């Protein structure tokens, strides 16, 4: 029996059985999408404001990456409508699990580094108004930049599905024996309209 010891360095950790199995597990999870049992797609979105600070001017999408294979989402009934003076505001949380531990790092999921576009056997159906851009693997260190997650139906319902914006409510957690990351998200606003225009454009007369 081997003596208790830590793995010697990053290179050894990347050769462990659990790490090497992540890509195979991803291919198995892709079957959920093929069978049509994961209707909600999840995107990481980076936006830039035209002003000098966040929230100043209008919001422009500079990068968008879809989490692939499509992760599992908890029951969205945890999100409720809270009625305020400004109107009905969605509030609540959502758990995203089975996020690929092989394709994404913690920095990717925290919005610190933009991952390259995923390469899959089946190219995902493009969603109108969701352009890709910016440098692959570029660290996000130029302000003002904002980062959030967006949940969109895959198209089996409304032609242009509602775009639901969420933000991380905690640090992404890697579940090693499950070969995936787990994300806890909180509902956020403002949101983009279904056609892809930003809600901030309305105030500028651009919507």
What key phrases describe this protein's structure?
8-stranded antiparallel beta sheet, 10 strands, two-stranded antiparallel sheet, 207 residues, 5 helices, alpha+beta, 15% helix
Explain what the structure shows.
This protein is of the alpha+beta class. The chain has helices at residues 10-13, 17-20, 22-35, 106-110, 199-203, and strands at 40-49, 59-66, 72-73, 80-84, 87-91, 93-100, 145-153, 163-168, 173-175, 180-187. The strands form two sheets. Strands 1, 2, 3, 6, 7, 8, 9 and 10 form an eight-stranded antiparallel beta sheet that branches. A two-stranded antiparallel ribbon has the order 4-5. The protein is globular and about 65 Å long.
Largest sheet: 8 strands, antiparallel
CA radius of gyration is 19 Å
Strand percentage, roughly?
25-35%
Low-confidence stretches: 120-135
